[in-house]
Structure formats: C-alpha cells, structure tokens
C-alpha cells in the first residue's frame, strides 16, 4: 500500500499527502464547523453562526484548506531557503501531526542551518500576526448584526489563521528535534563546540522536553500530546544517529572503501544455484555481480535472498541468470560515502555496484561503510 501520494509540485519540489493527513483534515473540518470558542478575543469556529449545517461545513472546509495551505507555506519556506544554500529537496509531505520537508542533507554551517530552521516559524508567526491585525482592524465578530454573514465568516477565518499560525510558530520553536527549535539550538551550540557534540546536547535537551510532554499527556489523557512526545523522542534519536554517521563519513569517497576490480568476486549467469551456494559458503559474502567474465558487462546482481526463494530440489537445475536482479543499482566512485549509505537505505539493498563510464570499478557494501564508521569514529 502506498502511504503517501503526490498532489503536485512547486518549484520542482514534489508535494505529497500521507494517508494519515486525511484523518486530521476531516477532524479539523469538524472542529471548525461544529464548534465555536473564544481565544484571545478571537472567535474560532462557525458553530454559533445562525446558518445551515451544510454552510457551516462548507466554511469549515474553506478554513481547513487555508490553514493547511499556511502549513505547506511553512514547509516551503524551509525548502526555499535550503535550496538557496544548495540543498536538494526530495519533497514535502503533510501527515497527521504536521509537515516534513525531506532534504538530502541540511547544511552543517551554523548560520545556514539557523536561517533554514528559522524560516518556517518566522513565516507562520508573520501570517498569524498579520491575520490578527486584520481581525483587530475589521472585527470583532458580531453574530447579532444582520446582513454581516460574509464579514463574520471572513473574520472567523482570519481568527483561525491568526491563532493556529501563532501556535504553530511558537510550537515549532520548542528546542527539540525534529522541531525547528531543536535545529536552532544545535546551530547555537555548534558555534561553541564540534557539530556532533552540539547535536548530542541539543538532542538531550529535546528528549527532556519529550519526556515532560509525555508525562503531561499521560496524566491529562491528552493522547495527541503523547503522540507528539513519542515523535519528538524518536525523531531526536534518529537525528543524532544520522548526524554521527554523516559527520564521521565527511570527506570519505566511495572509492576509498570499495573492493576494487579485479578483487571483486563475480559469478557467471550459467552457474547453478548449488554452485553459487558453494561460493557463498566459502567467501561469506551475501551478494555478487553476475558477469560472463570480469571484463564483460554486468548482467545483474544475485544475492542470498534470491537463493532462498528457490526450493532445495530445484537448486541443481536453476541457473543464476534465471533468479538474478537485472536492474542495477550503482554509484560513482567519486560519490560521497554517506550518499552511498543513503542510497542503500532508500533502495533497501546491502551493496552497490561502483560504475564509471559504463564499466564496473568495484563493489561497496553496507559492511564496508559500517566498518569505516566504527574505525573513523574512534579518531574523529
């Protein structure tokens, strides 16, 4: 099942909706349509308007679309600033607890990371304050005023945009990953200490917030708050792991870690699976390029997982060429080692062919990368 689907793109950035977004979208429509409550002199919701339920839900839907549009603008502001600094944006996804800009890698210079991180909350607070100013200028809502349906509906929408964007901006400034405030805190620490240490300290602060938020959510039975706490806790842990890996592998190229030709072990396509199993047992590798000879083109890749699909009685007659994967996942020798690791993770493979000008130059495995991380982490 596809958990997200693309609805369009803006400046080359794919915009996607996660299936869980539909849950929160429908809930927000109901919240705006069937309820009305005053907050900071703002009227939030259409529930008290003397109009039909259908019209209330129509206005609630309009308000929900506009609010989530501002949430998308929040993420786009991050992405546009990141693009300015050369980052590649793989997409923006809206889901049940917000939006995520998927960047290949955030620049590690503190001032760049700070500007990228501040862009989202800055835009949300700006939208909120401008909406509040317009509401204050033309408001307040007066349901007793006859003939003021359009004015009251517009004021309520302004109130919704004002309140929720101000809340969104302030909430994202919480100093906890993956919130923007966590990245701002790391950028502040990174001016005073190594980047990994700055990340670990910022993650520790964020986990403290997550723990406190989780306790509050349990005692007040606010399960959405508990969900956010879990998201923050594990998001911080993932950020710490990714940062340690990316910083440790900084400056390391694929060619520095790969097994080079002619040391790469290959298997011919006409070998039987039994012959392949003998090589698997002797070399203890989990995958091999398939070639007629070391100088011939790579025809595919065969792995231990391919072997497992073949019943034991048929392994003596089944050929490697019949079970190999023909789609080649390759990387250039001058690519960053961290990019190789990301490619392995996204494609769920344990090794990559290293190709240049159509020729195989070597093979790099996840084990090669993990060994390099362990070794380099000792000295960096």
Please give a structural write-up.
The chain has 13 helices and 12 strands. With 380 residues, it is of the alpha+beta class. The protein has 2 domains: 4-248, no CATH class; 254-379, CBS-domain, CATH 3.10.580.10. β5 (89-95) and β6 form a beta hairpin. α2 (53-84) packs antiparallel against α3, α3 (110-138) packs across α5 (180-190) and α5 runs antiparallel to α6 (195-220). It starts with a strand and ends with a helix.
Secondary-structure map:
Blueprint: E1 4-10, E2 13-18, H1 19-34, E3 37-39, E4 42-44, H2 53-84, E5 89-95, E6 98-103, H3 110-138, H4 149-172, H5 180-190, H6 195-220, H7 223-248, H8 254-257, E7 259-260, H9 273-283, E8 287-290, E9 300-303, H10 304-308, H11 320-323, E10 330-331, H12 337-347, E11 351-356, E12 359-365, H13 366-379
Parallel strand pairs: 2-5, 10-11
Antiparallel strand pairs: 1-2, 3-4, 5-6, 7-12, 8-9, 11-12
Largest sheet: 4 strands, mixed
Number of domains: 2
Query: Into which percent range does the helicity of residues fall?
Result: 55-70%
Oligomerization category of the chains in this entry? single chain
Work out the number of β strands.
Answer: 12
H/E topology pattern? EEHEEHEEHHHHHHEHEEHHEHEEH
The structure class reads: alpha+beta
Distance between the termini: 42 Å
How many helical elements?
Answer: 13
Radius of gyration: 27 Å
What proportion strand?
15-25%
* Average pLDDT score: 89
Query: How would the global form be characterised?
Result: elongated
Return residue spans where pLDDT drops below 50 for at least 5 consecutive residues.
Answer: none
Lateral arrangement of strands in the main beta sheet: 1-2-5-6
């Amino acid at each position: 099942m596809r958990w997200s689907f693309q609805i369009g793109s803006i400046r080359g950035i794919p915009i996607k909706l996660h299936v869980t977004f539909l849950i929160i979208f429908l809930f927000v429509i109901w919240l705006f349509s069937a309820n009305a409550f005053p907050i900071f002199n703002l009227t939030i919701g259409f529930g008290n308007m003397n109009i039909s339920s259908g019209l209330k839900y129509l206005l609630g839907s309009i308000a929900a679309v506009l609010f989530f549009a501002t949430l998308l603008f929040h993420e786009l502001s991050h992405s546009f600033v990141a693009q300015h600094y050369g980052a590649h944006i793989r997409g923006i996804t809206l889901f049940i607890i917000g939006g995520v800009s998927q960047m290949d890698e955030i620049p590690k210079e503190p001032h760049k990371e700070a500007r990228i991180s501040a862009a989202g909350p800055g835009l949300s607070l700006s939208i909120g304050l401008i909406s509040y100013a317009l509401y204050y200028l033309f408001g307040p809502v007066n349901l007793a005023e006859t003939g003021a349906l359009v004015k009251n509906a517009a004021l309520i929408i302004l109130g919704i945009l004002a309140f929720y964007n101000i809340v969104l901006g302030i909430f994202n400034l919480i100093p906890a990953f993956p919130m923007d405030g966590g990245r701002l805190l790391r950028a502040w620490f990174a001016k005073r200490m190594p980047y990994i240490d700055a990340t670990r300290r910022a993650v520790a602060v964020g986990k403290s917030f997550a723990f406190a938020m989780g306790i509050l959510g349990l005692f007040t039975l606010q399960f959405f708050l508990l969900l956010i706490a879990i998201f923050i806790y594990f998001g911080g842990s993932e950020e710490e792991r990714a940062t340690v890996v990316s910083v440790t592998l900084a400056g390391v190229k694929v060619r520095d870690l790969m097994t080079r030709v002619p040391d790469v072990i290959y298997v011919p396509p006409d070998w039987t699976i039994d012959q392949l199993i003998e090589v698997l047992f002797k070399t203890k590798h989990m995958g091999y390029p398939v070639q007629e000879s070391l100088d011939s083109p790579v025809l595919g890749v065969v792995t231990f997982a391919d072997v497992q699909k073949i019943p034991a009685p048929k392994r003596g007659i089944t050929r490697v060429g019949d079970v190999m994967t023909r789609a080649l996942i390759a990387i250039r020798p001058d690519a960053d080692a961290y990019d190789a690791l990301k490619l392995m993770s996204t494609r769920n493979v344990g090794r990559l062919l290293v190709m240049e000008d159509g020729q195989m130059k070597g093979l790099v495995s996840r084990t090669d990368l993990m060994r390099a991380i362990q070794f380099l982490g000792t000295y960096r």
